[in-house]
Amino acid sequence: MDDNKQKLQEGLNKLGLTLSTVQQLLLLEYVSLLKKWNSTYNLTALRDESTMISHHVLDSLTLLPYIEGTQTLMDVGSGGGMPGIPTAICRPDLQITLLDSNTKKTSFLQQAVIELGLTNVTVTGGRVEAMHDKKVDVVTSRAFAELADFITLTKHLLNDNGYWAAMKGVYPYEELEHIPDWVEVVKVEKIEVPMLAAERHMVIMKPKS
C-alpha cells in the first residue's frame, strides 16, 4: 500500500494538486474498491492498483482545472466512476451525478459512494437521452462516445451557461470535423497525466449563444 500512497502523492505533486490526508486515503480506498469488485462487475481491464492510480485516478483528476467555479456536474457513461468519483473526492462542494445504463456498473457505483461516504454524489441508472429531470453546469465523459454523438445525446442536460468537457485520448481531428454547427469548440488542450505514457486531450465545448 505504501508504494501506491507514494505514487499517488508524486502524481498529485506533478498535477499541482494539494489534497488533505483524508482525500488521499479516499482515493486509495476507491482504487481498492475498484480492484475488489472488478471481477464481479467488469469495471476496468486493469488488474493492479498501481496502474489504476495513474490510468484512472490521476487521469480523472486532470479534469479539475476545467471545472473551477462550477457547482453541478454529470459524468455520462461513468462506468467504474471515472472521472466522477475522484472528482467528487477532491471537490466535496460539487454536486455530481454519475450516469450509466449498465446496472452492474451502477450497483458498483452505489456501493462505492456509500463506502466512501460521498454525500455530494448521486448515482442514476438508465440511458442518457431518457434523463430529463436535471440540468448541470458541466457534462463530462471519458471515452463515452464520439464528440458529435456525445453532444447530441446530452445537450438537454446543460443549463443556460453549461458546457461540455470531453476527455479524449489522441487529438480528435476527425471527430472535431463532425461537430454540429451550433456548437463552439472553446479549446482543445493536450494534457500530461503523470506516469501515463499515452496521449490525452481535453475538449471544452459549449452551445453558441
TrEMBL record:
Q: Which reaction does it catalyse?
A: guanosine(527) in 16S rRNA + S-adenosyl-L-methionine = N(7)-methylguanosine(527) in 16S rRNA + S-adenosyl-L-homocysteine
Highest taxon above the source species: Bacteria
| Tagged with keyword Methyltransferase | yes
- Molecular-function annotations in GO: methyltransferase activity
Q: What is its EC number?
A: 2.1.1.170
Q: Name one GO biological process term.
A: methylation
Pfam families documented for this protein: GidB
Top enzyme category: transferase
> Cross-referenced SUPFAM superfamilies, in alphabetical order?
S-adenosyl-L-methionine-dependent methyltransferases
UniProt-annotated binding residues for S-adenosyl-L-methionine: G77, M82, V128, E129, R142
Question: Could you tell me the keywords of this UniProt record?
Answer: Cytoplasm, Methyltransferase, rRNA processing, S-adenosyl-L-methionine, Transferase
User: Where is it localised?
Assistant: Cytoplasm
This molecule's function is given as: Specifically methylates the N7 position of guanine in position 527 of 16S rRNA.
> According to its UniProt record, which protein family does this protein belong to?
Belongs to the methyltransferase superfamily. RNA methyltransferase RsmG family.
Question: What name is this protein filed under?
Answer: Ribosomal RNA small subunit methyltransferase G
Organism encoding this protein: Neisseria montereyensis
